[in-house]
Amino acid sequence: MFKQFLLILLLLFLAGPTHCRKGHLINFRWQNLYPESFTWDPKSDHFVVGSLRHRQIISVSDAGVVSSLLSDPSLPADSFFVGISMDPRHHRVLAVVRRLSPPFSALASYDRRTFRQLFLTPLNDLLPSDSVPVAANDVAVDYSGNAYVTDSANDVIFKVSEEGVATVLSRSKAFKPNAVDNDVPYKNCGLNGVVYNSKGYLLVTQSNTGKLFKVDVDDGAARRVILNKELRAADGMAVRKDGVVVVVSKQKLYFIKSDDSWIEGAVFDETALEEERHASAVSVGAEDRVYVLYGHIDEGMMGNLEREEFSIVEVESEVEGKEENVWIFVLIGLGFVYFLVWRFQMRNLVHNMNKKTA
Predict the structure, then answer these.
(1) What Pfam families does the annotation carry (predicted)?
(2) Can you tell me whether residue 335 is helix, strand or coil?
(3) How far, in Å, CA of 141 to CA of 148, rounded?
């Protein structure tokens, strides 16, 4: 029995570290980069990172090795990159381009192999003249190469074809907030993060209301996803292979799942983030790991500060970790039961053989 006890301790020791490891931390350096968004490039096994200060996109390895992918002097002066998305089927990098003054918003497309600009599609003139200036924010792409860009100022979603032709996909009344807290700094930031689902719809966050919307990519029809709690100050978002959606805010990373194609959804975990470092984007990297980008964008938007170190940090769901640990103990228990049954059978076998020999 003592040997059996030692076996259990050994199994627990081997299983224990499975969810006690530290999350993957990537510190990288680039002078005054202040990245607002990033994405994972599975082809190169690198992160692709934008900048609030430069017309430049860089590559960051999982060891923090940095290199420049493209620098585009053809973009308007003082413009910068916000949302970034990979289009692996068409070998492109899609990047939202912004300038604050005079206002400019566009979607840029670059060849993934040469980083040559394929098109630059302005979005400013697609809305009525009495609209506030477009504030393009994030971008997602479908399997046909159509890109979907959110406008945080007007609560609009644009659709940009593979060839760079832009139209308004949705100005749904569902996006119009009933009430917004005027005391929060993000009160004027509407539609923000966006992801594409292969069933033909988008999921879109709205920062100033904490809501999540499901938007049809064919006709732009939108409806609010019923959640068990608001996604306070929701910003960028990503989706894992198992369908779990992760939404980042300055304070938290939300883990959300749905069993009915996003008619309803449940926030099943919230992980606190380092607020002073201002995480603004989330991406799913290798092995379905979830990473947030600490880009210090509060500093970047002030324009009078300098920084050269930024971080990409893996974040795990504690709830999922505990659930998996339970299953580990269940398997250990089943293994122990199997061992006892096997030992009992062997003992009977030896006993019967001894009887026959006698």
Answers:
(1) SGL
(2) helix
(3) 6
Encoding tokens for residue 60? 């960051």
Reading across the β-sheet that carries 252-257, which strands appear in turn?
Answer: 226-227, 264-272, 252-257, 245-248, 237-239
Considering the entire predicted model, what is its pTM? 0.86
| Integer Cα distance of 52 and 293 in angstroms | 13
Q: What does the radius of gyration of the chain's CA atoms come to, in whole angstroms?
A: 25
Tens-digit pLDDT profile for residues 83-98: 999 999 999 999 999 9
CA-CA distances (angstroms) from residue 28 to 22, 32, 65, 176, 306? 18, 12, 7, 39, 15
> Does the structure show a pLDDT above 80 at 228?
yes
Q: Which of 331, 246, 311 is nearest to 283 (CA)?
A: 246
Phi/psi at 179 (nearest 5 deg)? -155, 140
> From CA 123, how far away is CA 151, in angstroms rounded?
9
Find, among 151, 167, 166, 165, the residue nearest to 204 by Cα.
Answer: 151
Q: Is 10 exposed, middle or buried (0-12, 13-18, 19+ CB in 10 A)?
A: exposed
pLDDT at 20 over 50: no
- Token pair for residue 302? 């002030």
The residue behind tokens 């008619």 is 263
Helices (H) and strands (E) in the chain, counts: 3, 25
> Which pLDDT score, from 0 to 100, does residue 329 have?
45
Find the helix or strand (DSSP H, E) in which 130 lies: none
